[in-house]
């Protein structure tokens, strides 16, 4: 099977069926309709015709984790660059290069690297006023607009206030809360709210695109609780399935106070390991690139000073890489806690006989047994303990401490 292009996330083998770029936005019918109309209007503007209003120069994409905000921004950018009347055909040069990240008129301020650098962001924003080389649109995607520093935000605000005629800003942020985005920026943007896609839509996507067997797709879609990337991972990666099984064995392993501490330590270690393996490849590549740029070795006059500067840069890289590893561990912990919440939710809906489908269908026997044993109140306390743990980690409490506190409540109820 040939490797297809990828929209965000890791490379993945996909079925080669014709589809337009919007089909990436699983279960987002309303936003897709808005974006399609805007891209068509934008194409009319390019053709010198009246646009008809649907298009504007600044957009905000929001939505819960897993709703694929950045994918939505990239897909819209592709449609804006699409040579077939903004249809987002997925096949023309404009679509292709945008999705591959090589289009000359699409600049992405990404979160994949280390931190979002203020200077870099400012210079991207400042350069955005130039005319598009391809004659269509100059697009700037900011993948984590909520993490912009003040100076970068101000440059962005200025650019949005006085837009160049063919420049479009696509900002991605979890919400439009003032903590996430300046009110003054928000007020000048059109909002695209993505939702958590329904399980059935996610399952269908896995079947159509990745050739996952329907039963497996249904299970992965439910277990991922609407997170498309997570569903794709569960369907295609046995290690991800093993890690999930390990996390979901936690409730059964909590048999004593000693077990609570033991299970907390093991979960902490497992997420650290997962994070380390997630960033390892990128770490090495960055270090090699930096060493090459610094010209490893070198003798003669000035070499000592240069070496000292190089040592500083390497140290800076190491510091940033450590931050990224911490962030990756938080992501791994977050996935684990999300799985646990799903389990306790299943226990609750079972004991209340609520007519809703369970998240972890493969663990129904365990959640039913727990529903027999625990009162709904104690199940709720367990759910609250997981949420409190997540909150604590968000507020920089050491993961192990937060996990230990959570495990004790999960055990006692
Ligand atoms: Zn196209």
Automatic annotation (TrEMBL):
Pfam families associated with the record: DNA_pol3_delta2
**At the top level of its lineage, which domain of life is listed?**
Bacteria
Gene Ontology terms: biological process: DNA-templated DNA replication
- InterPro entries in UniProt: DNA_Rep/Repair_Clamp_Loader, P-loop_NTPase
Indicate what this protein is called per its UniProt record: DNA polymerase III delta prime subunit
Originating species: Actinoplanes xinjiangensis
